[in-house]
Write a structure and sequence with these properties.
Length: 295
C-alpha cells in the first residue's frame, strides 16, 4: 500500500499491489527494463507503465533511465530495502499459514557466525519465538563464508553473518555496524598510551581470524592495512573471539576484536580508525528469496 499527498496530508492509495513491488525489485536487480520484462514474462512497455504508476503513487523517481540501463536513485535505493522486506514478510505469511493448514511444522534452520555477538543471536531467536510460539529452531554455528553458501544452497533458512557476502541473490537485512578494535593486555606498557603508532601495530598485531572463516572480509581488512602502509604478518589464526582474546591474554601479541565482544572480556583496546580508516564489522541477517516452508 502506498500513500499520496492530498492537502498536505497522507491518504491511502489502494491501487498498489505486491506485484508492483516485485516489478520494481526485478528492474532494480537487473538494472535494465528489457531484461526485467523477460524475467517477469511481461512486455517492456507494460513494465514501464507499472513502474511509472508506482513512482506516481509514492511521489518519487525511483530510476534514472539511460542507454546503459536503469540506475536506482537515492529514493530508489531506500525503497528497495522496504520493498524486499514487504515481499519477504508476505512470503512468510503465506508459508506459515500453509504449514498450519497442512499440519506440517518444519523447523527454522538458523546459523550464526562465532564472531556475531551472542546477544544478537539471542534476540533473533527470541524474536522468532515471539512470532511463532510453537516453532522449532535448529541452530548451528560456522564461519560466515560457509553459512552464506549454506543459505544460498538451501541448507539453512537464515543466518547471522559478517559482511561482505559477495555476489549472492539473497535477502539481506543489516542488523548492526560496529567498530573493529586492536586488542592488547591491560598491563602492556603500550596500554597507557592515548593511541598506537603504525609501527606498534605492524610489529605486534599477530592474531587474526582465519581467512577460511571469511575470505572476503579478511581480504578487505588486509587491504585497509596495506592502504595505510601497515605491513601485517599474522602468525596466529583463530576461529572465535574467545580464542582471539585468550591468545592476547597469554601474550601472543595484539589481536582484532569487535567493540561488543570487549564488554565480555575486558581488555584494553584501540579503535583501528585511528590508523587505517573507519574499519567496521557489519552484521547481516541473510535468508533465501524462496525457501522451504516453516512457520
Amino acid at each position: 500500500m502506498a500513500a499520496e499527498y492530498a492537502k498536505g496530508r497522507y491518504t491511502l492509495y489502494s491501487g498498489l499491489e505486491f506485484r508492483h513491488l516485485r516489478y520494481f525489485v526485478a528492474v532494480a536487480e537487473e538494472c535494465n527494463f528489457g531484461r526485467a520484462a523477460l524475467r517477469l514474462h511481461l512486455t517492456q512497455p507494460s513494465l514501464s507503465t507499472q513502474i511509472k504508476k508506482l513512482e506516481d503513487c509514492i511521489h518519487a523517481t525511483l530510476f534514472r533511465r539511460g542507454r546503459a540501463g536503469a540506475e536506482l536513485t537515492s529514493a530508489g535505493r531506500h525503497f528497495l530495502e522496504a520493498a524486499k522486506r514487504l515481499l519477504h514478510m508476505s512470503t512468510l505469511a503465506f508459508q506459515s499459514t500453509s504449514s498450519v493448514h497442512s499440519g506440517i511444522n518444519l523447523p527454522l534452520r538458523f546459523g550464526y557466525s562465532p564472531f556475531i555477538n551472542h546477544q544478537l543471536v539471542e534476540a533473533t531467536v527470541s524474536g522468532y519465538r515471539d512470532l511463532v510460539p510453537d516453532g522449532q529452531i535448529e541452530p548451528s554455528s560456522a564461519g560466515s563464508a560457509a553459512l552464506i553458501a549454506m543459505v544460498a544452497e538451501g541448507h539453512l533458512d537464515a543466518a547471522l553473518v559478517i559482511m561482505p557476502i559477495g555476489d549472492h541473490k539473497l535477502f539481506v537485512h543489516r542488523i548492526r555496524t560496529q567498530r573493529v578494535l586492536v586488542c592488547l593486555r591491560q598491563d602492556d606498557p603500550l596500554a597507557r598510551l592515548e593511541s598506537l603508532s603504525k609501527n606498534h601495530i605492524e610489529d605486534r598485531l599477530r592474531i587474526t581470524f582465519s581467512r577460511d572463516h571469511h575470505p572476503l572480509c579478511y581480504d578487505e581488512i588486509m587491504r585497509k592495512f596495506a592502504k595505510a602502509k601497515i605491513r601485517l604478518t599474522p602468525t596466529d589464526f583463530v576461529s572465535s573471539p574467545t580464542d582471539m582474546q585468550f591468545l592476547v591474554k597469554i601474550g601472543a601479541g595484539f589481536g582484532t576484536v569487535s567493540y561488543t565482544h570487549l564488554d565480555v572480556y575486558k581488555r584494553q583496546a584501540y579503535w583501528l580508525g585511528q590508523q587505517v580508516g573507519p574499519s567496521k564489522a557489519r552484521s547481516r541477517l541473510l535468508s533465501r528469496r524462496s525457501r522451504p516452508t516453516w512457520p
